[in-house]
Amino acid sequence: MNYPNGINRNKSSNYIEKINYANRGMSLEDDLNRTNEYYRSIDKAYIYKKPTPIKIVKVDYKINKITEGYLNTPSTTDYNGIYKGKYIDFEAKETTSMTSFPLSNIHSHQLKHLENINRHHGIAFLIIRFTRLNKTYLLLENDLECFLKNSKKKSISIEYFDKKAYLIKDKYTPRVDYLEILDKIGGI
User: In this structure, are residues 106 and 93 in contact, taking their beta carbons and an 8 Å threshold?
Assistant: First the structure.
């Protein structure tokens, strides 16, 4: 096909499509950020993405740029906030696996943090997206803890998610309506 500006983009040309990999793995985070913005806009819940704690060491003030920094302390989880008077705290992860979620994707201090939130009667959970299956699950901390105590496996199978977790159906607005799941299971 010949385009108006004279560029010929057929398979026989040497045209190489540039692929931007900068934001791979960000779709769940983007969906959750938009979902949380929606919840705030309708005054339903106030849940925010936590910033990563970074210690700034050097700044180039001429160009207004941080030139050196490092993680100050290990971050806990991705999101926290309040819904119907209850504290909510969760971690969001994506996997390209079609069969399981690798536990190596979650740090031990994050697991301990979720356990502590649950123990103090907050609502703690994981949101896991299997990108190639186009499935997003909410796994409560209790069910995660049960798996960890009763299994030596290094990953959680999709069958466990199908059995113990809650499938979050994609919507237009909000995209990832995880509060709908919490309302249905009576956690709030």
Answer: yes
